[in-house]
Design brief:
It is built from 11 helices and 10 strands. The chain is of the alpha/beta class. The protein folds into 2 domains: 2-239, P-loop containing nucleotide triphosphate hydrolases (Rossmann fold, 3-Layer(aba) Sandwich); 240-278. The strands form 2 sheets. The protein has a 6-stranded mixed beta sheet with strand order 6-7-8-3-9-10. It has a 4-stranded antiparallel beta sheet with strand order 2-1-4-5, with helices on one face. Strand 9 and strand 10 (216-221) form a beta hairpin. Helix 3 packs parallel to helix 5 (142-154). It is globular and about 65 Å long. The termini are far apart.
């Protein structure tokens, strides 16, 4: 079942700039899907259509099978199902304390105070931030802020979570923690959609990838399908994952011939391919 679908979406900014050009994009329930593209490709613009922040110039958006009609009821329904975590958590965190920030969504949904307290406690525990309830968000590290922003979305109990560059600005440990958190949330049934230009991480968590270039989706498929199309990747101002690039060099320079089924994208894949040569 498609829980998010964009059909023939085009969008122009007020100055006439075309940001999205006839986009078709869909995500099945329970998947982790990446929208991969360089800065300025249109990733964030597309995402802001999925809860009605932007209205398309042409085309239709469907959330959980229902067309988004942009009336109050339709918008409230969509925003109850789709949670967006922005690239910069400072754009999302505004309350004096962590618990007030996480409680904002449930309270606005009409949840009673006692139930909201339980939701805040549960949401912070899921993201590993229990004990931070009384801390001011602006005193936290970048990784901690990202976790609090995610907790604020988790507290809304969404079916779909959209994350714009979720690992941007994080150190390696912070990246690993965020990826593990997304895995865990996905196991609980939340469909995850990620915007990124980090080609090394995408094969680790994505079931499917959509490559976007200048407002057009130019390639869609599994990680192996997408990164096999080297011309599309490089013409989209991206690169192969480092392991795939190494395999490509070995293939061309040393005749290792690892690329019959596409170059390996992860360490485990590269080990399997090397064992085939022994």
């Amino acid at each position: 079942m498609k829980v998010v679908e964009a059909k023939n979406i085009s969008y122009k900014y007020p100055d006439g700039t075309v940001a999205l050009d006839n986009i078709n994009f869909s995500v099945s329930k329970g998947d982790i899907v990446s929208l991969l593209g360089p800065n300025g490709a249109g990733k964030s613009t597309l995402f802001l259509h999925f809860n009605g922040i932007f209205t398309p110039s042409e085309g239709e958006i469907f959330i959980d099978g229902k067309r988004l009609d942009y009336d109050k009821k339709s918008l409230v329904d969509a925003r109850g199902k789709v949670g967006i975590v922005f690239q910069n958590p400072d754009d999302q965190l505004f309350a004096p304390t962590v618990e007030e920030d996480v409680a904002f969504g449930p309270l606005n949904l009409g949840k009673p105070i006692d139930e909201t307290k339980d939701i805040v406690e549960s949401s912070l525990k899921k993201v590993g931030m229990e004990g931070f309830e009384k801390r001011p968000p602006h005193h936290l590290s970048g990784g901690q802020k990202k976790r609090i922003a995610i907790a604020g979305i988790v507290a809304m109990n969404p079916k779909i979570m959209i994350l714009d560059e979720p690992t941007s600005g994080l150190d390696p440990k912070g990246v690993s923690q965020i990826l593990q958190l997304l895995y865990d949330l996905n196991k609980e049934g939340i469909t995850i959609i990620i915007s990124t230009h980090d080609v090394d991480l995408v094969p680790l968590y994505s079931k499917r990838i959509n490559v976007i270039k200048k407002g057009v989706i130019v390639k869609e498929g599994t990680p192996q399908d997408v990164f096999r199309d080297i011309d599309i990747i490089r013409s989209s101002n991206l690169r192969l994952p480092r392991i795939a690039h190494l395999a490509e060099i070995l293939d061309k320079e040393d005749n290792v011939n690892l690329g019959e089924d596409g170059y390996p994208l992860t360490i485990s894949q590269s080990r399997r391919d090397i064992l085939k040569l022994l």
